[in-house]
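Technical annex, item 7. During the second reporting period the consortium partners agreed on a shared format for inverse folding records so that results from different sites could be compared directly. Each record opens with the tokenized structure and is followed by the designed sequence. A conforming record, contributed by the partner at site C, is shown below for reference.
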């Protein structure tokens, strides 16, 4: 964030997100759906932990893009999960940002607006590498043809599966 406006904007979005969560809890409390409240709290804790881990990859432009994506995109919801011991991706930051932006923005553009679209981005850290899995569930226009073409052109990206309702892409970054 480069100026005061960016900080204020980030705080506005964060406050809005927390108010939505509080409304969900309050509504379920009124309905005496205590099990659902526990689920909401567990989900928020898991998501917050993943966001914290994303911040630890030492690639600020990537963290910024991923952590603010849902604030600006209405076509699909991005969720993240992190597994394994996080290590620095600072040396791969520009390549990681390029690939994440290309895949995520392409999925958002290809998403139809009449369904709920969801992307789970999983970072799997092992001793030797970080594997990113982009697992899209929703409805894609033209059965994801542009994603097939993209994966064919991008050697660092593997297309695992594509259909009108699902797309799974994979990329790996070696530990440096």
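Designed sequence (site C submission):
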């Amino acid at each position: 964030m480069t100026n005061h406006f960016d900080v204020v904007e980030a705080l506005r979005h964060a406050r809005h997100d927390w108010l939505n969560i509080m409304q969900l809890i309050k509504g379920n409390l009124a309905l005496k759906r205590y099990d659902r409240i526990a689920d909401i709290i567990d989900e928020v804790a898991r998501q917050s932990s993943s966001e914290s881990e994303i911040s630890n990859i030492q690639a600020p432009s990537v963290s910024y893009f991923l952590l603010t994506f849902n604030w600006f995109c209405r076509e699909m919801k991005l969720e993240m999960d992190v597994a394994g011991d996080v290590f620095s991706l600072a040396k791969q930051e520009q390549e990681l940002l390029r690939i994440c932006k290309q895949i995520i923005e392409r999925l958002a553009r290809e998403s139809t607006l009449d369904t709920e679209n969801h992307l789970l981005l999983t970072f799997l850290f092992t001793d030797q590498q970080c594997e990113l899995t982009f697992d899209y569930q929703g409805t894609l226009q033209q059965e994801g043809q542009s994603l097939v073409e993209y994966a064919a052109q991008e050697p660092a990206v593997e297309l695992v599966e594509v259909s009108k309702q699902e797309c799974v892409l994979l990329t790996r970054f070696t530990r440096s």
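Helices lie at 4-30, 34-55, 60-72, 93-110, 145-153. The chain has a mean pLDDT of 91. All partners now use this format for quarterly exchanges.
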